Amino acid sequence: MTPSVKTSTAAANTAPVRRSIYLAGPLFSLNERASNRRLAKAIESAAPELQVELPQDYKYHGSYNDKRFFKEVYQACIRGVERAHACVAILDGPSSDDGTCFEVGYAVAKGIPVIGVRTDYRASQEMGCNLMLSRGCTTFVHRPAFDEDFDGLAKDIVRKLKRILSAKTSA
Question: Is the CB of residue 97 less than 8 Å from the CB of residue 105?
């Protein structure tokens, strides 16, 4: 079964094919979900040729969190990563979200470039993360959240995405 998915922006029928970006990150609280959506919209605004996929929008049988459909949610996340031209992974917190860590590892194993994003200013092993994450990421955006600037963060991410995607296309 295909999930009903809300897209973060409406695309016109005549619009050129947009490159898919999978946004991996924690999605369990109001703040996490709102931040993910706001960042997705800011990325799409800064780079209209990109379409950000939010796994928090995967909905089965009218529910986002029904244990009977966890297999479908898992499979949809796997397909989302596999479809993506690149993955943007939010790696904030004292320890990065388990699901995000899995998605990063899966993307790396599939050869899909990953941009690690950290706005948290707390230190850890490397780039504020466990070294398996920091070294798994193709590149990193570290922008402490003091300025609370989603548009600036999105522009930093888009610069890295364009560099990665153009290198991937020319390879």
Answer: no
Alpha-carbon distance 128 to 133, whole Å? 10
Terminus-to-terminus CA distance in the chain, angstroms? 35
Residue 158 tokens, joined: 């888009």
Please state, as a whole number, how many other Cβ atoms lie within 10 Å of the Cβ of residue 11: 13
Of 171, 154, 170, which Cα lies nearest the Cα of 21? 154
Which pLDDT tens digit goes with each residue over 3-52? 555 544 444 456 678 999 999 999 999 999 999 999 999 999 999 999 99
State pLDDT tens for residues 119-148: 988 877 777 788 889 899 999 999 998 999
Look up residue 61 and give its two tokens.
Answer: 């049988």
β-partners of residue 87 are 22, 114
* pTM, full prediction: 0.87
Q: What secondary structure, in 3-state letters, does 136-148 show?
A: HCCEEEECCHHHC
Residue 53 sits at φ, ψ, to 5 deg, of: -95, 125
